[in-house]
Amino acid sequence: MLSLHNPFPTTPKPSLNLNSSTPPFSTTFKPHFPNTLKPPKPHKPHFATRTQSLLQYNRKPQLAGETPRVVVITSGKGGVGKTTTTANVGLSLARLGFSVVAIDADVGLRNLDLLLGLENRVNYTVVEVLNGDCRLDQALVRDKRWSNFELLCISKPRSKLPIGFGGKALVWLVDALKSRQEGSPDFIIIDCPAGIDAGFITAITPANEAVLVTTPDITSLRDADRVTGLLECDGIRDIKMIVNRVRTDMIKGEDMMSVLDVQEMLGLSLLGVIPEDSEVIRSTNRGYPLVLNKPPTLAGLAFEQAAWRLVEQDSMKAVMMEEEPKKRGFFSFFGG
């Protein structure tokens, strides 16, 4: 004969208060979650994670630091993409809703207006402002596509600068932009000329942040390391790096240094990695920056992500790529 004895007795333990109206297993205890997080939903974990990611990308970045932020984009070596970075990062910041003034500090070889398609609208420059021939607002060229983006050129091609123009004059110019009647911009981006001569010293004088553009080759890295030391000597401690023209196929074939190797060599925070893209030449010739292309290109998306990190003073982390047939050390690029 089978016994119907319950192996799990329901008699409460003596420690429980049976006279209370609260059930034996009370729900008064609530787990503590931080204010920024919500309790997880165990029945739909994948859906909740996916929704949180979408909200993260759809939000507007939070502007960090005191405004206006004066950022100089430099490299030391010519032809690594400083002007292209200035144009695309500047317009990306404008598309995110921030007011931007881009200053082309390359006096003799002015090219930023060409990349932005504004070469026919530059009537006055900083030289005319200093000579009293025009006002500062007349020298600022407002972009028709994004009204919160403005371009300011120091001089016209084939023109001579005053002998007294230097770092103090550029500091005065930045102070004038900060105190103008229509309000100071959120970002003042300075396109630095190549080299480390007087033009470089002039461009970095008013800046408190720097973006160092480099490519993964030995000559560019040597110049970037030299420029990093000069920036630190000038008092600029917030230095971030953009690695331009990266080709993953050459990295896997050990014909190009990886981004991780570049970061270990320079010791700088990584702001962005820009892949090699043939669309850069087309956009340069058309005067139409990459970030405005539809559909967007890989390089354009990388510039937008770099601008996002610049707003929040964030950085990215380089990852190691698998190499075949075997991984070699960094000194293998020097023949070791």
Automatic annotation (TrEMBL):
Give the molecular function GO annotations: ATP binding; ATP hydrolysis activity
Q: What CDD domains does the record point to? A: MinD
Which cellular component terms (GO) are annotated to the entry?
cytoplasmic side of plasma membrane; cytosol
CobQ/CobB/MinD/ParA nucleotide binding domain residues: 71-289
Q: Which Gene3D superfamilies does the record match to this protein?
A: P-loop containing nucleotide triphosphate hydrolases (3.40.50.300)
Q: Where is this region: Disordered?
A: 1-27
Q: Which UniProt keywords apply?
A: ATP-binding, Nucleotide-binding
Which InterPro entries has this protein been placed in? CobQ/CobB/MinD/ParA_Nub-bd_dom, MinD, P-loop_NTPase, ParA/MinD_ATPase
Asked if the keyword Nucleotide-binding belongs to this entry, the reply reads: yes
Tell whether Transmembrane is among the UniProt keywords.
no
Q: Where is the composition biased (Polar residues)?
A: 13-27
BP term (GO), one: negative regulation of cell division
What NCBIfam families does the annotation carry?
minD_bact
Q: Which family does it belong to?
A: Belongs to the ParA family. MinD subfamily.
What PANTHER family would the database entry show?
A: SEPTUM SITE-DETERMINING PROTEIN MIND HOMOLOG, CHLOROPLASTIC (PTHR43384:SF6), SEPTUM SITE-DETERMINING PROTEIN MIND HOMOLOG, CHLOROPLASTIC-RELATED (PTHR43384)
What is this protein's name?
CobQ/CobB/MinD/ParA nucleotide binding domain-containing protein
Organism listed in the record: Quercus lobata
Lineage per the UniProt record: Eukaryota, Viridiplantae, Streptophyta, Embryophyta, Tracheophyta
